[in-house]
From TrEMBL:
UniProt pathway: Carbohydrate degradation; glycolysis; D-glyceraldehyde 3-phosphate and glycerone phosphate from D-glucose: step 2/4
Matching InterPro entries: G6P_Isomerase, SIS_dom_sf, SIS_PGI_1
One Pfam family, short name: PGI
EC number: 5.3.1.9
Family indicated by similarity: Belongs to the GPI family.
Originating species: Cannabis sativa
Protein name in the entry: Glucose-6-phosphate isomerase
Gene (name only): LOC115709294
GO cellular component: cytosol
Superkingdom per UniProt: Eukaryota
Composition bias, Polar residues: 25-39
Keywords: Gluconeogenesis, Glycolysis, Isomerase
One Gene Ontology MF term: carbohydrate derivative binding
Length: 342
């Protein structure tokens, strides 16, 4: 995925690049019948659009422009020659993405562009700083880099890149081992169910991903405890029935101290005890290193622990739950990570 600054910083200015060979004069102007026949300059600079309605389509019958007033009621350009000039000047092309964006019919003026340019340049600079690891959350003193998970090469320090890659490899290997039966539940056989315990962003991301990508007959079915309602928790555990013994329990919490998640965990652990099962052999913690949850999992010897990174903030942190689904983003063809969810 291209970085935002990678797209936007390819030019130092918002002003259209004037190309005397491509910009027709009014006497040389002839309206094209189809844009695919045109030689279009590659637009490298970001463009701004104002929320006006678009002018009507230009009829080829009026290609000399004589039947058009030069501006319509909204002050939008109507002259075909000028519209063509705007098209040539403002067509944006991003080669790598194969993206064309034509904003030439949007009613912005050169003055508007001049006025907005410094503000947008400031925004692009801020984005560039963000990608380079600037502290963007002053309250918590942390960077904002959730997109580095999808593209570790964007991470500003080699150690971050290496942490991401190692973690994602570990997660994918773990997922593969679960699916293949290399890692088994103590009762034997294979894991058949996943129970995800987490709230808010630590539930919504996994829920979204499993809803969006689950096949009809997944190797592991997933269910969620995403609030502290005792009846709801009991219901999820009851639904598992004897399959509790082949359930992989993911406990997801960035802070590792969210009370609702802790309540869910305690209830699940109680159910394991009542069924004479060893929770630690089936529990996985996904949380910040050194958190209460991480320490609990470490001391109790849970099956696995995976980190959530400090610089993955807000709801986006849970959108993967940071680690379990990386190849959703990067390698849709490599299904080894996906399968563990489904
Ligand atoms: O991942 P944690 O630390 O358990 O935090 C969960 C909480 O964070 C949020 O996802 C966002 O504030 C809440 O919806 C939720 O209660």
């Amino acid at each position: 995925m291209a970085s935002i600054s990678g797209i936007c910083f390819s030019s130092q200015s918002l002003k259209p690049r004037k190309n005397p060979f491509l910009r027709p004069t009014s006497s040389a102007f002839s309206l094209p019948t189809h844009s695919s026949s045109l030689s279009i300059p590659i637009r490298n600079s970001p463009r701004i659009a104002t929320p006006h309605s678009l002018p009507r389509h230009i009829s080829p019958d009026h290609s000399d422009g004589s039947a058009f007033p030069t501006k319509n009621n909204h002050g939008l350009e109507k002259d075909p020659g000028e519209l063509w000039r705007r098209y040539v000047d403002w067509l944006y092309q991003h080669k790598d993405l194969g993206l064309f964006l034509d904003v030439s019919r949007v009613g912005f003026t050169d003055e508007f562009v001049t006025q907005m340019e410094p503000r947008l340049q400031a925004a692009f600079k801020a984005m560039e700083d963000l990608e380079k690891g600037a502290i963007a959350n002053p309250d918590e003193g942390r960077m904002v880099g959730h997109y580095w998970l999808r593209s570790p090469e964007l991470a500003p320090k080699p150690i971050l890149k290496s942490q991401i890659e190692k973690t994602l490899d570990a997660v994918c290997d773990f997922a593969e081992d679960i699916i293949s039966g290399k890692i088994t539940p103590p009762s034997g056989g294979r894991f058949t169910q996943i129970l995800s315990v987490g709230i808010g962003g630590s539930a919504l991301g996994p829920q979204f991903v499993s809803e969006a990508l689950a096949p009809d007959n997944p190797p592991l079915k997933i269910r969620f405890i995403d609030n502290t309602d005792p009846a709801g928790i009991d219901h999820q555990i009851a639904q598992l029935g004897p399959e509790l013994s082949s359930t992989l329990v993911l406990v997801i919490s960035k802070s590792g101290g969210t009370p609702e998640t802790r309540n869910g965990l305690l209830e699940v652990q109680k159910a394991f005890r009542e069924a004479n099962l060893d929770f630690s052999k089936q529990g996985v913690a996904i949380t910040q290193e050194g958190s209460l949850l991480d320490n609990t999992a470490r001391i109790e010897g849970w099956l696995a622990r995976f980190p959530m990174f400090d610089w993955v903030g807000g709801r986006t942190s849970r959108c993967l739950p940071s680690v379990f689904f990386r190849r959703h983003y990067r390698e849709l063809t490599s299904e080894k990570c996906l399968k563990v969810l489904h």
